[in-house]
Description:
Blueprint: E1 3-5, E2 11-13, E3 18-25, E4 31-44, E5 47-64, E6 70-81, E7 86-91, E8 94-95, E9 104-107, E10 110-114, E11 121-126, E12 131-136, E13 141-146, E14 155-156, H1 184-191, H2 237-243, H3 248-257, H4 260-280, E15 295-299, E16 307-312, E17 316-319, E18 323-325, E19 338-341, H5 342-383, H6 407-415, H7 450-458
Amino acid sequence: DPHLITWDRLQYTFNGYGEFILVQDDSDAPKRFTIQGRFAPRKSENGKSLATELVAVAIGMVNSDPNGVKTMGDKVHVEFKSETKSLAVRVNDKPIEFKEGFTWLDVEGLSINRAKGNDKEISVTTRSVSGVRIVATDYNLVLYASVGLTYRGFTHGLLGTYTDTVTDDFTTQTGENIATSAGEQVKHEKFGLSWRIQQPQSRFFYPSDNSFSHFQFPDFVPMYVSQSTLPPSGMNYNDIKRECETVQSCIFDSIATASIIYGVNTLNSYKHATSAIQATDKLVSCGYLPTPNHGIKNYTGYLQSQRVFFYCESAYTLIGSSARLCEPNGQWTGFSNTCIHNAIFVVGSLVAVAIICIVIFFIVIYLRREKVTAYNTEKMEMKHAPSKPEHLGSGAVDDEDLDDGGFQEWQDKERKPSLENIGTTGHQYPPISDFDRRSDRSSVSQDYDPTLELRMKINPDARLSSVGLANDDYRGNRNGSASHATPESWV
């Protein structure tokens, strides 16, 4: 179909005869793509017409190294077979066959997907999720192209310059901008023909009996839309206009081919294209997912609500997610994956188990060692506890006066019953046990109560609220016990 809609929604007709660049990736990416179209005159009811149609599409990768040297990468050639109204596909000039039960094929830089059980539709996607969907109708090819937002300002060709404005859509291959208000012939000759490919640029397949030059017709003069107001003999213009619902591309094709049926086919393609373009305004892409080494990938696409399925060859085990879904936020569900040889997988599993066991072993050893260290530290603290000075007697305790001597004599003295250490209630203070050495002492006022100190020594973990301060509230026994409280374009 010679009727095009650019990225920025500008509609026009180009009836070129030959091979032309539809989209050229001018970004600085190391892997760039190009989409090319082959146009040939449509056979009309009265013979060959002066209007052309799309008969083949080529998608190719262009690789660029850090020094700017460009080399041609993989390419896909899709051709319309009018006899069977189907598509013939070649990858790197060789016919391809899809594996039974699968609808995809991956090559370096490109993914090819076809509708299941349908040889009339195919999609080719680049790693950057730019690409085309090619549909075979009863009469010709229809191409839908898409690019990501990151290509804004980096696409050129017959499908225009993606900049969100139509003023630069007619930019030639040499960079000249043709005004959108220019006449049809000016646009055709200065803009359209400037995108004719040269032989080194071509990504098409050429059979042995037809070379590159066989498909180039630079002197072809087409019929322009302005000339499509006089229908062929036997056709009524008003009937054509009515059947075409006043859509100009339908009217042009009906008159150029002398067939309203062909024109209506164009009308249906136009409706589908405009609907698809409107849908792309809300298009969400999750990005390309590579096929793991020794793996197999089957997918419906990389757009919202589409899924990608992964499998591994025999003797390999898939590690990661086997199915991933493109969510509305532009993110894939699941995790990246890889295929591991079964022997390596088993050994790796055993190694992982062994590592876990070793880690657990060292943790246990570490905890036991910490426990022993804590126990020995406690014993050392008990052994080297400070002594109470002899001169303090049973009176106030002053930390500044504590030293390593004299405390034993003070203990012996305090253990002897006497009238001095008998409370007013007649109760005798309990003996001081070895736990005295673990108790921490802090400075207290001069009216320090020795019974309080002794009771805290007997039960050092007790809170003050659980021990009464008055001597006659104490209910301890000689064994040291005390109660305490714990509180996600169209052609």
